[in-house]
Amino acid sequence: MIKKSNKRRDFIKFSTLGILGLSLGGGIIISPYALQAEMRLRPPGAVEEKEFLALCIKCGQCLQVCPYHSIKLADMAKGHGVGTPYIDARERGCYACSAVPCVLACPSGALDHKIEKPEEIQMGIAVLEFKNRCIALTNTPVPKGHSKRIHDFVNKQNNITQLELDMLEKLDKFEGEPCTICADMCPLPNPLSAISMVPEEEGKRPEIYEGCVGCGVCEELCPANEPAIVVKPRLTYEDYYIKGLKS
Fold this sequence. Notes:
Elements: H1 2-24, H2 31-37, H3 49-55, H4 61-65, E1 72-73, E2 85-86, H5 101-105, E3 124-128, H6 148-155, H7 162-172, H8 181-184, E4 195-199, E5 204-208, H9 217-221, E6 229-233, H10 237-242
Antiparallel strand pairs: 1-2, 3-6, 4-5
């Protein structure tokens, strides 16, 4: 029995040391997640990713002042950058608040204080990546209950704001109509600088312009089961549409 216990202890000890060695060495376990960190959609004003990770003190103040509950803090499951703020656009995009409160709340410079208005935000770029999902292209009316997912997100918040309620009221009116949600719900002061619906053979197609800041609202509100339009974090209009860079 003593020999068996010793063997068991040795197995646990050396197995644990092996796992720790891989983790500390940043090998197979760590490196894929480190790369994923640069693919996150960061809050408005986020500086270059490596600098952002160095400057962010993980205080959560940007999250606390966001009136749309758009900002989340990365947990262990997200890998590299635990505790740093990010936005899951399909769950809740950034509504480009006029005062950009998240930037003002940042005490460390991880969110650049030179950003003072929505048009100056540059989070990423919207892309109609899955045309086969776009119901506007087939002239399919916005389905009943399309906004349930958005309502459910808002209703689970502890402090629902009037801004969120106003957004839901506007969104609900699209039910049964030809889909123009991504263009008409764009939160920028001049949405036509970022996106519009252009005629196609059967319906209309969302077209992205240079004014797009990558806020992710179009991805969040897309009524398809899976979003037809998605945001590419950290890319600009020039990067994607002119230089042809892909993320």
